[in-house]
Amino acid sequence: MPPVKRKPRTYDPALVRAGLIGQVEAVRNAVHGLTPDQLARPSGLPGWDVRHLVVHIAGQIEAVPRLLAEPPPRATAPETDLNTWAVSVAGAAHELDEATRRHARAYDSAARAVDDAVEELEPVLEQAVRADVLLPHSFGAMRALDFTVTRLLELVVHSDDLTRATGVRVPLVRHALATTVRLLADALAAKAPGASVEVRIPPFAVVQCVAGPRHTRGTPPNVVETDPLTWIRLATGRTDWLKELDAAHLTASGERADLRDHLPVLE
């Protein structure tokens, strides 16, 4: 039986906007409290110290007003959806690294880079969550709302990176966290289509994935369950499946419930 085609998830523009504002503010507050010693620490990302990480975060914020300011794409309909973005973004890693290093050389203060990005973002917040505005993304025309959803993911993932690298807690805003969990869960379902495994990330998402016999009633025979933060770290390659299984941050039951071949989602 072929897998059932899932209807694309929709995101409420008001909640996306609220999540963006809240997570940007959480990052900004944390960054302004970092010491020179903390900024010089390894970020946990290859080749970057914390200062590079902060400048990269600023670039993710600034990307929204930058794309909105560019000429609209020639396309009249979206060419890139959220799942396509999620499975394609790893291909842009080299360009992102180079852009971050250029950005870091341009600023003597990482906090100032964030401040400047926030100043550019504030006037375009309403436009940033419009579903009828297309942006000229390098992967193909993308709805402004969808692109802003990807910025929530970037902010949440890198807020966690910042917390782990510095010991300074960067709160994860509920709307931003929920959006990130759902985007990554949907991307897994797109990357490993099927319905033989049910992945549960309470309280935000449940998806079915992996080819095989489809379950129709009762308790599914193959179930994976974890918490939102562990899921985000697994899906973005920040942690290891067996490590989280051993730490009881993850449960996996059933012969098909080993997702190691499908992780990370963002490679």
Features:
globular; 4-stranded mixed beta sheet; 267 residues; two-stranded antiparallel sheet; 11 helices; 8% strand; alpha+beta
Number of strands: 6
Shape: globular
Fraction in beta strands: 5-15%
In terms of structural class, how would the helical and strand content be classed? Answer: alpha+beta
Low-confidence stretches: none
The largest beta-sheet arranges its strands as 4-3-5-6
Average of pLDDT: 93
In a few lines, what is going on in this structure?
The protein is an alpha+beta fold. The protein is built from eleven helices and six strands. It has helices spanning 13-31, 36-39, 50-69, 82-88, 93-106, 110-121, 125-128, 144-166, 174-191, 228-235, 241-246, and strands at residues 134-135, 142-143, 197-201, 205-209, 223-226, 250-253.
Describe this structure in words.
There is one protein chain. With 267 residues, the protein is of the alpha+beta class. The protein is 51% helix and 8% strand. The strands form two sheets. The chain has a four-stranded mixed sheet. A two-stranded antiparallel ribbon has the order 1-2. Strand 1 and strand 2 (142-143) form a beta hairpin. The longest helix is centred in the middle third of the chain and has 23 residues, at 144-166. The chain is globular and about 55 Å long.
Write the layout of secondary structure elements.
Blueprint lengths: L12 H19 L4 H4 L10 H20 L12 H7 L4 H14 L3 H12 L3 H4 L5 E2 L6 E2 H23 L7 H18 L5 E5 L3 E5 L13 E4 L1 H8 L5 H6 L3 E4 L14
Helix pairs in contact: 1-8, 1-9, 3-5, 3-6, 3-8, 4-9, 8-9, 9-10
